[in-house]
Amino acid sequence: MKALTQCWFTRMHIPEGRAHKEDDGSHTSWCRHCERPIVSWDKARWFLADGFNVTHLAETVGGRFLFVVDSLEEAMIARYPVRDLPDEAAIEALKAELRERHGIGKPGSTLELHDSGAKPAERRKLADKRARRVAPTGRSSPLSASY
After folding, report:
1. What's the 3-state SS for the chain?
2. pLDDT grade, residue 6 (50/70/90)?
3. Mean pLDDT score across all residues of the chain
């Protein structure tokens, strides 16, 4: 029987080797941990390639939103539409207000602010930050029973 892999716990798939670029602009590879086919549209977030991807559908069909997500509970706390805001400066002002209102970025906070219209470079930066937080540090954590 195969043991549960790291991506099963973290829900973060890591490609093994180089990704193959498809005609639709997506990138495909195999997950280093679960050895299943995975797909990405920004090379930052990888999803299982088999099945229906609701996240990609929501990002490509719906309008732009700001999401407040609790990364510990894996739950969406709030969603804010930004289609009525006139420009990028107004969106950045709303982001600053939401960070202050929800305490995002303060010590001990597990909340994150996600922008559905974020550029791929911003998404990669956020994914790298999340991966560093998930990676084991060698110290035991009160939230982890595996160390």
Report:
1. CCCCCHHHHHCCCCECCCCEECCCCCEEEEECCCCCEEEECCCCCCEECCCCCHHHHHHHHCCCEEEEEECCCCEEEEEEECCCCCCHHHHHHHHHHHHHHHCCCCCCCCEEEEECCCCHHHHHHHHHHHHHHHCCCCCCCCCCCCC
2. confident
3. 80
